């Protein structure tokens, strides 16, 4: 089956929209109906032009529009892909696992490392723990439907978990089980260019755009329990916040 047959031709007789808009509409529908899945590669521009009998300039214009909408993403040297974006609300304290499940996606983690240690001077400030307090450290690659989304480095105050082994797919599930799931968090978000380590782990080019989110999670009694640095693929997440006017 050709790509044009999969997503539908552009020859609706009553369609007076410009051709690039017709192609955009067809691609948009194919993404919504899951004919095209996140991370699917699109054919090369010249092949698209040939299949739909339109000019390459028209194809490029159509794709440019969908790239700026965030529906498609370009990876240098590799082509154009369906973006694997996830809209993430900034006002809800949810876990990666919950975020993915609520979007019909299957979460999975790969351990980079997990172990025990003592707070660093920096952590002792952020976590408000006295120097030398035991902590657990977790480093993971987080996947959605098999596609790498983020690399996360987490430090948990050791009082919150019986051991590192109790963490399966979800850290928050393990913290919930001991009554130490954070109920409040502070987050700081920063744009980054991936260095070799994170780029390698995420399978993206070095210097690709990413988001670094640092979350500090607190218990009801005010004690800090978690510090996590999450490196999200820049094309993976949209952070959305609802703002209310001062009244
Ligand atoms: C999210 C949190 C992270 C938390 C993790 C727990 C952000 C920016 N970060 O990735 O702080 O540790 O969820 O997820 O949202 P889990 O329960 O699936 O392990």
Strand order of the largest sheet: 4-5-6-9-8-7
- What structural category characterises the helix and strand content? alpha+beta
Radius of gyration: 22 Å
CATH topology group of the largest domain = Chorismate lyase
Q: How many domains in all?
A: 2
- Element-level helix/strand string: HHHHEEEHEHEEHEHEEE
What would CATH call the homologous superfamily of the largest domain? Answer: Chorismate lyase-like
Number of helices: 8
Give average pLDDT, whole number: 89
Overview of the molecule:
By secondary structure, the protein is α+β, with helices and mostly antiparallel strands. It has two domains: 3-82, Winged helix-like DNA-binding domain superfamily/Winged helix DNA-binding domain (Arc Repressor Mutant, subunit A, Orthogonal Bundle); 88-240, Chorismate lyase-like (Chorismate lyase, 3-Layer(aba) Sandwich). Helices cover 28% and strands 32% of the residues. It is built from eight helices and ten strands. It has helices at 3-7, 19-32, 45-52, 56-69, 96-101, 121-127, 171-177, 196-202, and strands spanning 72-75, 79-82, 86-89, 107-118, 134-144, 147-157, 184-193, 209-218, 224-233, 237-240. Strands 4-5-6-9-8-7 form a six-stranded antiparallel beta sheet. Helix 2 (19-32) crosses helix 4 and helix 3 crosses helix 4 (56-69). The protein starts with a helix and ends in a 7-residue tail after the last strand. The relative contact order is 0.13. 2-acetamido-2-deoxy-6-O-phosphono-alpha-D-glucopyranose (16G) binds next to helix 5, strand 6, helix 7, strand 8 and strand 9.
